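Action item from last week, closing it out:
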Amino acid sequence: MSALNINGKDHSVDADPAMPLLWVLRDILGLTGTKYGCGIGECGACTVHVAGKAVRACKVTLAEASGHDVTTIEGIADSHPIVHAFAQLNVPACGFCTPGQIMQAVAFVKQKPDPEDDDIVQAMQGNICRCGAYVRIVAAIRQAVGADR
């Protein structure tokens, strides 16, 4: 049994410790907001927070996540400035990458609350948007940071 705290709730998970966290979240716990994209940690669709750090859930094992707080897109409030800005600026086109984009952006602005556009672009470059909404993603993060000031 592995113990996880996900979105503030304790869970005991009976699964192979080598199982990727992505499958624990989606298949065992039913938290399907975290998306499967590439399975090799390159696209960012499965981004979650483990111990406050943005990580790719397809690359983190259950054993590595055990004992750490895990936050998924379901644990980010709709009122969060990043979520609000993404909705207000109509960032999602197809919406597939949006959870991973939001999770990456939330972790980034916690680390750097007053970023320049170049900082935002660099922080977000590992999250792929198949629809090419990069300009709107940067604008939403910029707006959200302004809302936090």
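Closing note: Strands lie at 2-6, 9-13, 47-50, 53-56, 69-71.
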